[in-house]
Specification:
alpha+beta, 101 residues, 3-stranded antiparallel β-sheet, 3 helices
């Protein structure tokens, strides 16, 4: 499946971490709208998890660009550079997981 057909269908926009005004709960926000609330369990790194979730759209975009770049530079990536093949494979797995493919 080409990157042109791999499209994020989630909430568009810049995802940011913030707190709700009334409940003081860590949340993910897009343009003033809350799209997720993160349960607060300090011993498991809830705030760190929230920041990773908020970075997800940019990480997906980076993986798509990386996969496209590697495919353009080394079209087959088979039998050539094992490291490039491995990185492309990692990006592909992350993309498919993010897009539920």
């Amino acid at each position: 499946m080409s990157n042109e057909t791999k499209v994020f269908k989630g909430t568009p926009g810049k995802w940011e971490v913030g707190k709700t005004a009334t409940q003081n709960k860590t949340s993910i926000w897009v343009g003033g709208s809350r799209i997720a609330i993160i349960d607060e369990f300090p011993h498991i790194g809830s705030t760190a998890n929230a920041h990773l979730i908020a970075a997800a759209p940019e990480l997906l975009e980076a993986c798509l660009k990386l996969q496209e770049f590697i495919s353009d530079v080394v079209p087959s990536c088979a039998g050539g550079d094992d490291q490039l093949y491995y990185v492309r494979h990692l990006a592909e797995k992350a993309i498919d997981k993010a897009l539920n493919l």
